[in-house]
Amino acid sequence: MIRDITLGQYYPGSSPVHRLDARTKIIATLLYIIELFIVNNFWGFLIAGAALFTVIAISRVPVKFIFRGLTAVFLIIAFTFVINLFMVDGRILWQWKIFKITYEGLMRALFMAVRLVLLIIGSSMMTLTTKPIELTDGLEKLLKPFSLIGLPSHEIALMMTIALRFIPTLMEETDKIIKAQQARGADFESGNIFQRAKSLIPILIPLFISSFRIAQDLALAMEARCYHGGAGRTRMNEIHFARGDAAAAILMIVFLAVIIASRFLPTIF
Known about the structure:
This protein is mainly α. It has 2 domains: 1-130 and 239-269, no CATH class; 133-141 and 150-237, no CATH class. It is built from 11 helices and 2 strands, in the order H-H-H-H-H-E-E-H-H-H-H-H-H. It has helices at 16-19, 22-38, 42-59, 63-71, 74-86, 103-128, 132-143, 153-183, 193-199, 201-224, 243-262, and strands at 92-96, 99-102. It has a two-stranded antiparallel sheet. Helix 2 (22-38) packs antiparallel against helix 6 (103-128) and helix 3 runs parallel beside helix 6. The chain is flat.
């Protein structure tokens, strides 16, 4: 399950989505997340889902690879669904003792589950179609105006990109530690919740040590390449807006208008 996390991974390709400027994809992802919280009915989610799957089709990233990333967060989605299903008052559809399912709770649970799925897939598409170095440059360019007030745009962009890039690395390291501990007879599934939490200690301690080792190796590698921050730093490949980015910007504006208009459509249920 840990290996199934796709956030932070890059899927090589030469599709129109891959060729877009990193700044365009960052802004598009942020707008998409905002629009998901603007949606208030299933028409909006249907439009948002259709737009997302159109982008996936254009990017030519395998759908199985994208959906594989949902298995790692299935428990979070399921927990959110159950909490909203049983904790919202309203018109009762089913009841057994203290447990009850209401119409309002069912609708909110479905809304939250669909919103989380679309949010995770939409966020993953940015990293799947953008190289880490391009993501760093794009974030730095977007944060550049804030450097006028003393914000270290380059350092923040580099820190965020490294954090995203090393999510798959740390997940792979966690998987190795779990398998190594299981080979030594460790049991992570039996017992009550407190016993299971205690059994995670043999995983967390080696993981922290491994994380510090990876960070130290990265720092040494950066120092060996004479990295001294963003001051005076040049790039081998400069990022530029192209026609595809202008077309994407127009589509983003149109999509935002459609999402806002969908709020006024009659509800399906």
